[in-house]
Every structure is written in C-alpha cells, then in structure tokens.
Amino acid sequence: MSLTKTSRVWIVTLCAMAQSAGAATYKIDQEASRMRVFTAKAGFFARAGHTHEVLATRLAGEIVADADKPSAARLSLSVPAAGLAVQDPEFSAADRAAVQKNMEGDRTLDVARFPLIRYTSRAVVASRVGDDWNVKIDGMLELHGVTRRLTVPAVVTLAKDRLVARGEVELAQKDFGITPFKAVMGAVGVKNEVKIRFEIVAPLSPAAGR
Predict the structure, then answer these.
(1) 57-62 — which CB contacts under 8 Å span 24+ positions?
(2) Closest CA to 161 of 94, 67, 93, 71
(3) Which of 4, 20, 167, 202 is deepest in the core (most CB within 10 A)?
C-alpha cells in the first residue's frame, strides 16, 4: 500500500511531535537574571586606568529544553545595546556618565547603528554532574553588526518549573569590529578581551503548562 503525499506529511509531523513531547519552553526572567561584562586595564600606565563593570539589563529570550534530551536544547537571547549600564561604584556619577557615553558612542558599541545584541544556539553538548548539567553551547553572537561563532560553557540546573544557567565566557572586542578604548596616546585604556559572567533564570512558560 502506497502513502499519499498528505499521509507522509502527517507521519513526519506526528514523529516530530513525539520526539519533542518532553521539551518545555522557559522564558528568561530579566529581573532575576544577571549578566555582567568586565573590561581589564591595559597600557603603559594601566595602574592609572580602571577596570569597568557593565550590567546588561533588559535581557529577553527563551530556552527550549528536555531533561531526557539535553543536547536538543535551544537558546535565543537578546540584549538591547542601550540596556548596557556602567556600574563602576568607585566612580562619581559624572565619571560613570562619561564612561557610559563613550561605550555607547560610534567609536565603541555605536548603539545608534547597532541597537541589538543577539545570541542564538546552533548545537548543545551536555553531560550530567549530580543534579546539574555541564553544557557547551555552540552558537552565533551578533554584536556591533558582526556575527561570529561563540562557544559558551555553563552549568545548568533544570527543575520542573524553572531553568538556571550560570557561567563565564571571554570574547575579543576586535573580533566584532570594536576598537578597545584608549587615551593618552594609548598609555591608558582597556584590554581587547572582555569577560562576561552570567546567571540566567528562566521560569517555565505558562503556555507550556497548558
């Protein structure tokens, strides 16, 4: 007995639904999540410079995950470039505002031209460690108008009603067409490499429970 084209489509669709039946969608909670960017000092007079701390606010996105098939997880994350806020508690308000202006300007992030930062997973490798998962996310980062591959390691705790991912990753500003800030003819500035530390909290989407 031969199958019609419509029958084959339905079989493929049902198989896909069966494979993803255990997957759940988790929406990123921007209030509970934390992502911080750290830039280190560089230059001959590095001692006169400062290590900057930037908080990424207004995180958005979702994670689709299944504890039985962790390698099938998917992640999409976006951060408005204007949502990056300079912390630097040792600075005065005026100094923080100056650093913020420089960071958003056309010599650095160029927020006016490139308003959104996005990260999208392509593949996930996961291994169980106790109650958690050690994962490596192979994804694409879009920053400053440049899209490059970036592997992000994380420790993931997956509960019935929420997912928490913690980790740290380093990237080079020049890889994304960003010139690290320098002053005094390069004697004071920040390093090309920046560190990103994150704790992503994502409750189970209400729609997933219906």
Answers:
(1) 57/30, 57/83, 57/84, 57/85, 58/30, 58/83, 59/28, 59/30, 59/33, 59/35, 59/83, 59/200, 60/28, 60/30, 61/27, 61/28, 62/25, 62/26, 62/27, 62/28, 62/202, 62/205
(2) 67
(3) 202
Is the distance from CB of 42 to CB of 191 less than 8 angstroms? yes
Question: Residue 170 — pLDDT band, cuts 50, 70, 90?
Answer: very high
pLDDT in tens, 119-132: 999 999 999 999 89
**Count of all residues that appear for the chain in the document:** 210
> 182-198 b/e with 16+ CB inside 10 Å = b?
eeeeeebbbbbbbebeb
155-174: average pLDDT? 93
pTM of the model: 0.80
pLDDT band at 189 (very low <50, low <70, confident <90, very high): low
